[in-house]
Amino acid sequence: MSETGTVKLYISGHLIEGANRAEAVIKLADMLKTSPAKIARLIDGNPHLIKKDLPAAQAGKYQQALAAAGFETIVKGDSDAASAGDTAAASSAPPATAAPDSLALMELGALVLAADERAPQRKADIRTDHLDIAEAGSRIAEAPPAASPVAAPDIGLAEHGAAIENVPKPPPPPAPNTDQLSTAEPGTELGVAKPAPPPPPDVSHLSLDDDDHPPGKKHS
Predict the structure, then answer these.
(1) DSSP string computed for 204-220
(2) What pLDDT sits at residue 150?
(3) What is the pLDDT of residue 146?
(4) Which of 10, 91, 115, 143 could form a disulfide with 74 if both were Cys (CB 3.0 to 4.6 A apart)?
(5) 3-state secondary structure 35-90
(6) Would you give the distance in Å from CA 77 to the centre of its chain?
(7) pTM of the entire structure?
(8) Which stretch of DSSP H or E encloses residue 22?
(9) Which residues have C-beta within 8 Å of that of residue 209, sequence separation ≥ 6?
(10) CB 75: neighbour CB atoms within 10 A?
C-alpha cells in the first residue's frame, strides 16, 4: 500500500482470532466514546467504514489501535480493492498504547462509498401501456358464475314447536322366539340343577305273612 494519498479504513465485521467478543466491544466503545450496543452491531460479518480521507501514512496507527481492541480492519485506497494483506497485518499488529483521537463512527444511513464506488442503479423497464384505470366501484375481477337454482318441492315449514326428524327411525327388532321356554313353579330356584331322584329299594327278598299274628305264634 502506498504511503502517499488518502485511504478508507473499515472494520471488517470480524474479530481477530482469539479475541473475546464482550471485551472487544467494551474496549472499542470506550475508545470511540459510544455505547457497547452500537459497537456490537459492527460484528456482523460486513465491512463498516469508520474513517475516510485518512492519510495513508497514518493507517497503520489506526489499525494497531483497533487490533488492540480485538477488531480486524481493512484499508482501501481510492482505486485499490480491499487488501487481504492489510487485514492480516492488522490482525498481527502489536498493541498500541494510545488510541487515535480522530476516529469516529458514521451516522446510521450515511453513504460510506464514493459515487464511483457504488454499483449503478438500473431502472426497471416496466411496460404499462396495456393497463388502464377502472371506474370507482367497478369489479376488478370477473364475477363468479351464478349458482344453479335448487328445486325442492317436498320442503316446507313445520309448525312451531314440532319435532323435526332429520333421520328416519330404524324398524323395531323382531320379537324373540320363546317356544323352547316354560314357566317354573313358584319358589323354584332358577339356574340350580336338581339332583336325580335315588333309585327305588330292592324288595324282592321280602314277603308278607298270611295274618297279622306276630312271628313264632300259632293260631288255632
Answers:
(1) TT----SSSPPTT----
(2) 73
(3) 82
(4) 10
(5) CHHHHHCCCCCCCEEEEEEEEHHHHHHHHHHHHHHCEEEEEEECCCCCCHHHHHHH
(6) 47
(7) 0.38
(8) helix 21-32
(9) 215
(10) 24
Size of the chain in residues: 220
Residue 53: closest CA among 106, 15, 12: 106
Whole-number pLDDT of residue 15 = 92
Q: How far, rounded to the nearest angstrom, does the alpha carbon of residue 216 sit from its chain's CA centroid?
A: 118
Between CA 146 and CA 6 the distance in angstroms is: 75
Residue with more model confidence, 190 or 44: 44
pLDDT at residue 65 is higher than 60: yes
Q: How far apart are CA 113 and CA 117, in angstroms?
A: 6
Q: Return the pLDDT at 215.
A: 55
Other Cβ atoms within 10 Å of 162 Cβ, number: 8
pLDDT at 86 over 50: no
Question: Percent of the chain at pLDDT above 90?
Answer: 5
Task: Supply 96's cell numbers.
Answer: 498500541
